[in-house]
Amino acid sequence: MMGLLRVIKKEDHNSAKIVQILNTNKQIKFVSLMGVDLGGNATDEKIPVELFKKDIDDFLYRGIQTDGSSVELHEIATLNNAKVNLLPDLDVNWYIDYNTELTDYETNLPVGTLKIPSFLIHNDKKVCSRGILQRATNNLENTLIDLLKKYPNLLNNIDINSVDDIEKINITSATELEFWVSTPEDKADLDKLYVSQSLKEQYWKKTQGTIRSALERTLIILQELGVEPEMGHKEVGGIASSISIDGKTNHAMEQLEIDWKYSSAIQTADNEIVIRDIVEEVFKSFGLDVTFKAKPLNRVAGSGEHTHIGISAKLKDGTVKNLFSPKCMNSDFMSEIGYGALMGILKNYEVLNPFVTDSNDALNRLVPGFEAPVCIVTSLGKTYEVPSRNRSVLIGLIRDIDNPLATRFELRAPNPLSNTYLVLASIYQAAVDGIKAVAVSNLDSKELEKEISKEAGETSFYLEKDRKYRDEENVFEYYTQDEREKLFGKSPATVYENMLNLDKYIEKVEVLKDNDVFTDDIINSFKVGAIERWMMELKNRVIQDNMDIIRGCKKMHTIDEMDALDEVVYNDIDNIKHELMKDTLIRKSLFSQIIEALDNNELELASQLQLVMKAKMELLQREYIQYKKNIF
How far apart are CA 532 and CA 229, in angstroms? Predict the structure, then answer.
């Protein structure tokens, strides 16, 4: 409904003002403190608003106690030490979440819940995703100021005379949310989706019918929330839906994207959680299903969440300077600070990746052929005048030669269910490491451009000798897989492999722990939780879903209308089905081997078998599609 209060700005976060707002908006019946655990899960509870108003100072400044077993804090909140407090964050916007299915009898408006982003406190420490990001942004801001004081040469290529001219460091971010929309119970026709994607039939096409209405209503609500949506549009995936005579959408399966304006790091991550909820609820109200899965369908484009990172300085005279932009955009790609930040992210990405890609679903998206990044490599642009448009790299430099304030990095690996708090926190820690190295090196922007553009085998003051870090070509077409792995490193193929990087790259893990932003306890807790989810999903979801696919691959030809080719092809399909799923007296199926390995905690074996299973499932589905095409 139009005109509802949607947001309480941080300027109004004092007891008297909040009570006044709640008394004026009587449709707000509940308050919920939204903490975010290490798994990216947001807490939600219903506190009657009258109780909140009565003890408002206690709620705001001391928080409430909860049981740590209800949040994902493995080996931190334990059975004998489970107390966790939820403490409101007074420095971000608070949102009102409306239940459109329940009307308040007094106001005749939907019942609202005031959602207050909060910190999870255990043993007097912030152990949640929001707390980690808060520490990371503080560390980046403070380290930058200290470095600029100690190494004033860092400002030589930025239009700032002295660190004393700086009033504040601004760390900004923005994300792009992609998702799939479908009518309930519709089954995907992978062939049609694949062809439509290849022909780019849906990309930026006009939305119609119910999907258009749902998208437009979502954008209107986001405007009311103050997150400033910039656009909503069709993405590359999907097929054209049909419209019934009563104007309803039939057989919809489309991929959409919503973008909104940048904000501070924590506000960006908070906005994302709220926006996902709104998208799901609005589209559901129009009878549509939404999924934010990274790879809901094989053979077609997955959903990404490209994450933009920027750093600027607000000067005491009121002007703002982008710390990544050089003085002359026509003769440099970046400033020294920009090069340092980018080099830090690239060098340390092996320990950032676990926080970016921590699920089976996320890894299913990161495969060659779907514009999803696989290689640790960047693109700056072929010339200073022409910005990079290379969509095959992990992280790109986004710049507008006529607008220095627009310079930023775009990390392409995250997906809609990535924990954006931890993604940004790890990025900022890596950026700090690179900026420190550049400051000490005393190299100028031209020398740093040469460093980041080095060939594999060339030594560097900071980057690894045997790696290549910049490429302006489409790395999927220009190099073979073996060449990519040699130049850019081999990407983890399973969640287990990815989490092992947190044990393998000890020096890079120390970068995360700088100034106690991440701690050993937090890193271990995150790793334990990710591996536990991987095991549970693999055993109880991935294998079960694959079983359903196999059971659907039935023999379709009959004796009367068959050709010998049909029989031969189906026999091959049947053999794959049996190898995957059917136990015999003398041989266990691949599914049973995986389950047994998981039950015995043989995680490396389970990880290896998962890759064999994935390859065979892809082969099965390809062969069955071809088989069906030959059946009348």
Answer: 36
Q: What was the pLDDT predicted at 371?
A: 62
Q: CA of 18: how far to CAs of 22, 340, 377, 608, in Å?
A: 6, 43, 48, 55
Taking residues 150-168, report their average pLDDT.
93
DSSP letter at 10 equals G
Could you tell me whether strands 249-250 and 242-243 are parallel, antiparallel, or unpaired per DSSP bridges? antiparallel
Q: Which residues pair with 67 in a beta bridge?
A: 83
What angle do the packed helices 336-347 and 420-441 form, to 10 degrees? 120
Q: For residue 17, which amino acid is it? A: K
Radius of gyration for the chain, computed over Cα atoms and rounded to the nearest angstrom:
26
Q: Return the exposure string of 319-334: e unless at least 16 CB atoms fall within 10 Å of the residue's CB, then b.
A: eebbbbbbeebeebbb
Contacts of 306 (CB under 8 A, 6+ apart): 175, 176, 410, 411, 412, 414
Residue showing tokens 């991550």: 269
Closest CA to 460 of 474, 443, 485: 443
Angle between helices 543-552 and 564-581 (to 10 degrees): 160
Strands 378-379 and 395-400: parallel
The answer to whether 141 touches 171, Cβ cutoff 8 Å, is: yes
Q: Tell me which long-range contacts 271-277 makes (C-beta under 8 A, separation of at least 24).
A: 271/225, 271/227, 272/175, 272/177, 272/305, 272/420, 273/34, 273/36, 273/42, 274/95, 274/97, 274/115, 274/225, 274/227, 275/177, 275/222, 275/227, 276/177, 276/416, 277/97
CA distances in angstroms from 490 to 354, 407, 493, listed in the order given: 14, 29, 9
Q: How far is CA 82 from the centre of its chain?
A: 29
| Residue 189 confidence (pLDDT) above 80 | no
Total number of residues shown for the chain: 632
| Contact yes or no for 118/35 (Cβ under 8 A) | yes
Separation of alpha carbons 412 and 422, rounded Å: 15
Q: Which residues pair with 117 in a beta bridge?
A: 34
**Residue 523, amino acid:** I
Q: Are 379 and 471 a contacting pair, CB within 8 Å?
A: yes
Pull the structure tokens for residue 77. 């909140």
Element (H, E) at 249: strand 249-250
The pair of structure tokens assigned to 256 is 């959409």
For the stretch 294-311, pLDDT in tens is 888 776 778 889 999 999
- pLDDT of 248: 61
- Cα–Cα distance measured from residue 70 to residue 82, given in angstroms and rounded to the nearest whole number: 9
- The CB-based long-range contact list for 458-462 (8 Å cut-off, 24+ gap) reads 461/437, 462/343, 462/347, 462/434, 462/437, 462/438
Per DSSP, the three-state class of 151 is coil
How far is residue 175's CA from residue 309's CA, in Å, rounded to a whole number? Answer: 9
Residue 486, burial from CB neighbour count under 10 angstroms (0-12, 13-18, 19+): middle
Average pLDDT over residues 183-193: 61
Question: Does the model's pTM come out above 0.90?
Answer: yes
* CA 344/CA 462 separation, integer angstroms: 9
